[in-house]
Design goal:
Elements lengths: L1 H14 L13 E2 L2 E2 L2 H19 L4 H25 L10 H22 L1 H11 L2
Antiparallel strand pairs: 1-2
Helix pairs in contact: 1-2, 2-3, 3-4
Keywords: Membrane, Transmembrane, Transmembrane helix
Pfam family, one: DUF4383
Protein name: DUF4383 domain-containing protein
Length: 130
């Protein structure tokens, strides 16, 4: 989960440096990924919450499910947005964003399921001092 958090935090922070007002929509990118104000805030938030969750092991379970739900929704919205290329889209998703969000969502789901097992929850509780 730390890797996921760091990737999103890095993309979110770098995205703020690629937002010149003169660019046309869709031209603001960090490598392959869109860089819009809304998307940068979402990515930075996912990154910061992930780092906080990793520092507090009992919070990782909630972070996994929150990340799964949020990014599954972003993936669904992004696929619709990229497929229709609507001009009024404030987030301006592209297909690279959709793949990143889908892979992150699936990774968070798998981690959440693994963490839901009783033995894993017991180990996390011991490590957290509960």
């Amino acid at each position: 989960m730390l890797v996921i958090a760091l990737v999103h935090l890095t993309l979110g922070i770098l995205g703020f440096f690629f937002l010149p007002e003169a660019n046309q929509p869709g031209e603001n990118t960090v490598w392959l990924f869109s860089a819009t104000g809304m998307l940068n805030i979402i990515r930075a938030l996912i990154g910061v919450l992930g780092i906080v969750a990793v520092l507090k092991p009992s919070a990782i379970y909630g972070y996994c499910w929150m990340t799964f739900l949020a990014l599954a929704g972003l993936t669904a919205f992004g696929v619709f947005s990229a497929a229709t290329s609507s001009a009024g889209d404030a987030v301006n998703f592209n297909w690279a964003d959709n793949v990143l969000h889908a892979l992150t969502s699936v990774s968070a789901l798998v981690a959440g399921i693994v963490l839901a097992s009783p033995s894993t929850r017991k180990n996390l509780g011991r490590r957290a001092g509960v």
